[in-house]
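Let's practice the habit of predicting before peeking. Look at the sequence and jot down your guess about where helices and strands might fall. Then scroll down.
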Amino acid sequence: MDRATEKTTTPKATPTNPMPQTKSLKNKLKKWLLLILNNPIMKNIKYKNFFLLSWKKLGILIVSFFASIVLHNLISGLMKIEEALFFIIAIVIIPVYFLIAILLTTADYLRKKRSK
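Done guessing? Here is the structure:
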């Protein structure tokens, strides 16, 4: 049989292997996120209060990002010194928190969807 006529089969999910090996980035990301949330250590952490995103938390993130930029510029302009606290908050801390929150919110959504 030559390569042109060969059928390509994709692995199917089984009870022992609910996430079959595929080359899809979407499936790899799902598998990784589900492994994180099904970890016994993560089940004991009360991350839901801090990391699951809601519209209120997203609004707070956006406002605090812009407030940190404005405060950094005001302090630097008025006091003629270069301060780093609000700059670090705006450039490092808020984006890292946002990325972690997006990952954990997505993983929590997938876990709930999978358990249904």
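How did you do? The CA atoms of residues 68 and 84 lie 10 Å apart.
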